Amino acid sequence: MKKSLAGILVGISFVALLGFGLTGCSKSEPEKAVRAPAESEESSLLRVSFAWPTYIDPAVGNDNSSSSAMVNLYDTLVFPLADGTVKSWLAESWEVSDDGLVWDFILRKGVKFHDGSELTADDVVYSFERLTTIGEGYGYLFGGVSKAEAIDDYTVRFTLGEANGLFLPSLVRLYVLNKDVVEAHLASEGAYGDKGDYGKEFLLTADAGCGPYKVSEFRLEEELVMTRFADWWGHFNPKAPEEVRFLAVTEAATIRTLMSNAELEISDQWQSVDAFENLQKLDDVSVAALPTFMELYLMMNTKAAPLDDLAVREAISYAFDYDTAVSLEWPGTKKSVGPVPQALGGHNPNVKTYDYNVEKAKAALARSKYAGNISDYTIEIHWISEVPDEEKFALLFQANMAAIGLDVEVVSSPWLSVVENTAAPETSPDLVMIYIPSDMPEVGPLLKLRYHSSTAPTWSQNEWLLDPELDAAMDKALATIDVEERFAKYADIQEDIAARASALYLYDAVEKHAYQDYVDWPAAKGKASPLTGYYIYAADIGIDK
Q1: Is the pTM of this model over 0.85?
Q2: According to a count of CB atoms within 10 Å of the terminal CB, is the N or C end of the chain lower?
Q3: Is the peptide bond between 169 and the residue preceding it cis, with omega within 30 degrees of 0?
Q4: Which residues of the chain have pLDDT under 50?
Q5: Spatial separation of the C-alpha atoms in residues 175 and 173, rounded to whole Å
Q6: In this structure, are residues 496 and 522 in contact, taking their beta carbons and an 8 Å threshold?
Q7: Are the CB atoms for 357 and 454 separated by under 8 Å?
Q8: DSSP class of residue 99?
Q9: Is-contact 426 264, C-beta < 8 A?
Q10: Residue 466 region, left (φ>0) first, then alpha (ψ -120 to 50), else beta?
Q11: Separation between Cα atoms, residue 294 and residue 507, nearest integer Å
Q12: pLDDT at position 252
């Protein structure tokens, strides 16, 4: 017997995930008058700054700017809500077999792609097969699906190899492409047999979606321009922007000038605390501090000497001044507790943590195999050039390590270089500082993204643990349907990872943005999902300028 699940909460594991405040933090001073609406062609323009690069191919992109673009260009079977649940979207309803292995989704009829053709089940199956074949971006979320098939034009069936309690919410990352458009733009040469490049070159600068916006222009290193799709099946905010521009700029002076001149509606999240404080002083500009499933990690390359020694990594973990680091961040920021953010379902609050203790750090270093020649090594710590706030943590790290005799060089690295270098242990930095968000509101997918061997050659991990037993433990946990049992397995995995001291867990991040007061922004009111990309869902944003 099958059960109808449309419109029902995903499960108790997702209900309690957002127990922290969802209210945007604006200025502490008295409320200011909103700029009076003005007659202007720019009244329907939304401009947002981002760190680059941006990949709009749903089988490739998964970082913040890429995800923000994809949620506007493409639709998915289900849509994430602020409370951690999902609602029907392209799928009007769905049913699941009693054993949890077979899922049937009934599609909306009359949904149009940007070229005017109708979306059918074949497009959903094609999108799934393309994503899992290419295996980049969010493809790792669907490894447990053994088959996808179109039962008829409006029914899609997924068959799982084993039951998976996270399958339904994972579908917020299955962006549906127009099969015919992609097939018409296959490069003859590529890594995918008769599919050539599977349309990757075409989708680098174009879209094949049915979302509320479509690409009108994409200058790769400068700007992505999207315009409203008039035939979108969904509901626009009455004052939703006609045009959305993602700008490849994070330089503080430029952002301040743009915000001051009302030439930027929402800033990137990578401004320094000082920069946000200055932006908050501008007339008619506020700063929102939004909850996230994101943590700032200082990842150690465990394959590089002297970090291949657990005792050295423990010494580093004890020698860092976490409290000072957290004090440098936005008010309300909390020190991390272990390898995943505390807000996620299944977080283990009892894992081993390290506090600033120079004597313990020296003792750990003394028992390492490098105790007699540690001065022969210079350890490089890389921070992301486009995120200026990271430099202060790198300099703090350098000063802390000097106290125990470690020579540290601070290196500023462009994001694109970090992406390229973390693809192999030989080129990965000794230490690199990266914010990593969870793609789902439960710890399991983040554990896999951060520590599983299958995702090791990506920017999401620099530790290179490469442990088959740890991989198996993660796979078994993710396949466990019972919530309590799954969470217990997650707890054990977190203890294992924390004991390896392969990263410094600095703090659970809040996502800060400066925004114009004429922007009616659901995220600033706690009415948007914290999943990466969904804060900048333009169809729900109103521009009243």
Answers
A1: no
A2: N
A3: no
A4: 1-42
A5: 6
A6: no
A7: no
A8: T
A9: no
A10: left
A11: 9
A12: 96
In Å, what is the CA distance from 415 to each residue of 26, 245, 492, 543? 29, 21, 33, 31
How many other CB atoms sit within 10 Å of the CB of residue 525? Answer: 14
Closest CA to 439 of 422, 458, 417: 458
CA distances from 474 to 143, 235, 459, 496 (A): 13, 39, 19, 11
The identity of residue 134, as a single letter, is: I
Question: Residue 228 is inside which H or E element, if any?
Answer: strand 223-228
Nearest to 89 by CA among 185, 165, 169, 151: 169
DSSP 175: P
Query: Does an H or E element contain 96, and which?
Result: strand 91-96
Classify each residue of 120-155 as buried b or exposed e, where b means 16 or more C-beta atoms within 10 Å of its C-beta.
Answer: bbebbbbbbebbbebebbbbbbbbbbeebebeeebb
What's the distance, Cα to Cα, between the start and end of the chain in Å? Answer: 54
pLDDT at 7: 34
Pair 192, 175: CB distance under 8 Å: no
Residue 158 neighbours by CB under 8 Å, 6+ apart = 102, 103, 105, 128, 145, 147, 148, 167
C-alpha triplet 25, 29, 35: angle, nearest 5°: 85
Q: What is the pLDDT of residue 236?
A: 98
Which residue reads 């948007």 in tokens?
528
